[in-house]
Design goal:
By secondary structure, the protein is of the alpha+beta class. Helices cover 32% and strands 34% of the residues. It has a five-stranded mixed beta sheet with strand order 1-2-3-4-5, with helices on both faces. A hairpin with a 2-residue loop joins strand 2 and strand 3. The longest helix has 18 residues.
């Protein structure tokens, strides 16, 4: 359970995101690639408490446009601890594509969360992107 490998202080909420990434890495080590997204999501839900991360799964978030609710979108997880919360989107595909990054960043900006993680369980090696909401 070495979480320090995933901590990078140049990112906000680095200790929290490091624990989430460590939990995802544990899931990927056990399952390997090739499983559907829902299996990866359920497995991550079982692993996050081991890393002292609270979460809510399949959360409907408000999409904001100029400060007003414009709709709703479901994200895979809102995970956090006493330091804050992180939006987590997961994929299970052979490789992350630009559209995955753009989609997750758009959800992050529209929701107002500061930090997001895009995690892909489908590739040979776990792919992780930390995202920062730079929207005002």
């Amino acid at each position: 359970m070495n979480q320090t490998n995933y901590v990078d202080e140049k990112y906000p909420l680095s200790a929290l995101t490091g624990r989430i990434i460590a939990a995802a890495q544990a899931v990927h080590r056990v399952l390997g690639p090739g499983f559907e997204e829902v299996i990866c999501q359920r497995s991550l839900a079982l692993e996050l408490p081991v890393y002292d991360v609270e979460f809510t799964r399949e959360v409907w978030i408000d999409v904001l446009y100029r400060g007003q609710k414009d709709g709703k979108k479901r994200v895979d997880f809102i995970a956090g601890d006493q330091t804050g919360q992180v939006m987590v989107e997961i994929k299970a595909k052979s490789k992350l594509e630009d559209v995955d990054y753009v989609q997750t960043l758009s959800y992050l900006k529209a929701s107002g969360y500061e930090i997001g993680l895009l995690i892909n369980f489908g590739s040979k090696n776990l792919e992780v992107r930390r995202l920062i909401n730079s929207a005002p």
